[in-house]
Each structure stands twice: as C-alpha cells, then as structure tokens.
Amino acid sequence: MVQICRVQSWFVGVTPLLIFATVLHQGFATVAPPTPAPHKEPGRPERGYYNVTNHNGTICLMAYMGLQLNISYNSTSQKKVVQDVMNLQPNLTKHSGLCDSDIASLNLTVDAVKTNLTFVFTMNSTSNKYHLSEVTVSAAWPEMKEPVSVHNSSLDYLRGTVGYSYFCRDEQTLNVAQNLSINTFQLQVQPFAVKGDQFGAAEECQLDEDDMLIPIVVGAALAGLVVIVLLAYLIGRKRSHAGYQSI
C-alpha cells in the first residue's frame, strides 16, 4: 500500500511539469514564422513561329522557339526583390521587326502583361557570319513596384553562317543583365538570306554537339573494352595451348 501511494504521489508531481512543458512548446511553435510557399515554375514554354517581312512582302527573318523571361524586380506585395519567370505565349504575342543589309531585328510584344522584347542580329560581311548582338526588354507586371527596363548592346550569342539557320535543341540561357536572363527552348532562327518561307540548313549549337559527343565517347569506350577482353581471351587461350604442347 505504501508503494502504491508513492507511485501516485510521483505522478501527481510529474503531471504539472508535463502540462507546463506542453504549453511552453506550443508557445514557441506559434512564435516561429510560417514557411513561405516555394515559387512555382511555369513549365516549358510553347514554341512560337515569328517572322519579319521586307517592304516588298518577302520574309527576311524567321524564328521558331520557346521563350522564357527570368526577371528580378521589387515586389509591391512582398516588399523585397523577387525573381519571377514568365513564359511568352505565342497566341498572345505580337511580332514585328526590320531588316537591313547587315542588321535585322525581331520585336515581340505581349500587351496582356505589358512586356516588350527586341532581338537585334548583326552580320559581318567579311566573315559571312551573324550573331545576336543586342537585346532590349521592358516589362511592367502587376507585382512590379516600378517597371523594369534592360538594354544590352554588347552580346555575342546565337552565332551562325549567313544563309544557314542556327538551331539549338537543348535549353540555353542568354544572360542579358544582372536582373534579366532569357531561356530559349528548341530555338531555330535565321536572320539573313532567307529563301522563301523555309529555314536554311541548320547549324547545330555547341550544346547539341556535346550531347551527341557523349554517346559516341561511351560507345567507343565500350568497343575498346570489348577489344581488350577479346585480346585477353585469345592470349590466354594461346598460352594454354602452348602449355599442352610442352607436356
């Protein structure tokens, strides 16, 4: 009977401590700030076909690509700098541009989100090469505290040969400024010497060439391994026959 009383008195003494610890834990749990929801990526953008025509109605620039804008800006609701990603939807994107002897531009406008994007391609008549030399982006999204305007005229992307189209199957990132980059998906573009409404022969980008090189290297390594194993087998077999003859 004495032992039962001691056990009951021990529980009576411990119970208030357990209650206090539980209340204290709940108090600390309510003080901890909620974890912000992760930013949801928009997914892979749809490819859009954009072309520019001369004054006589002939196509002078062609582009078929998926585009994604990655912009950092001051958020009105979050009151801090955030990074947001937006896909350009072809059915909502207007396109225009200009062509000259050594300069061609493509302008894309999305009125729904007040976004304007301009690509400028420059041709070097000496080397017969072209490249993306300039990008201008302006955006006034609802969450932006103030509009974002970016211009870079010293770029060197999408290098190709005049008369050929530049093609890159893989996703690639064009860094324009510290607060802006453009992701391209399955991009094919030809800014000069377009014949009719068809792209010229495609020149693969370095990313695609690297992807093709990997299986070639792996295949060559496997072939070399097979040859080594076969030689080892033949050498071993020859030695075994030689041993039999000596006996």
TrEMBL record:
Question: Which segments constitute the Lysosome-associated membrane glycoprotein 2-like transmembrane domain?
Answer: 214-245
NAD keyword on record: no
Residue span, Lysosome-associated membrane glycoprotein 2-like luminal domain: 45-195
Q: How does it sit in the membrane?
A: Single-pass type I membrane protein
Q: Name one GO cellular component term.
A: late endosome membrane
Q: Which cysteines are joined by disulfide bonds?
A: C168-C205
Signal peptide bounds: 1-29
What's one GO BP annotation on this UniProt entry? establishment of protein localization to organelle
Superkingdom is Eukaryota
Annotated family: Belongs to the LAMP family.
What protein does this entry describe?
A: Lysosome-associated membrane glycoprotein 1
Q: What is the lineage of its organism?
A: Eukaryota, Metazoa, Chordata, Craniata, Vertebrata
Tell me the gene name. lamp1b
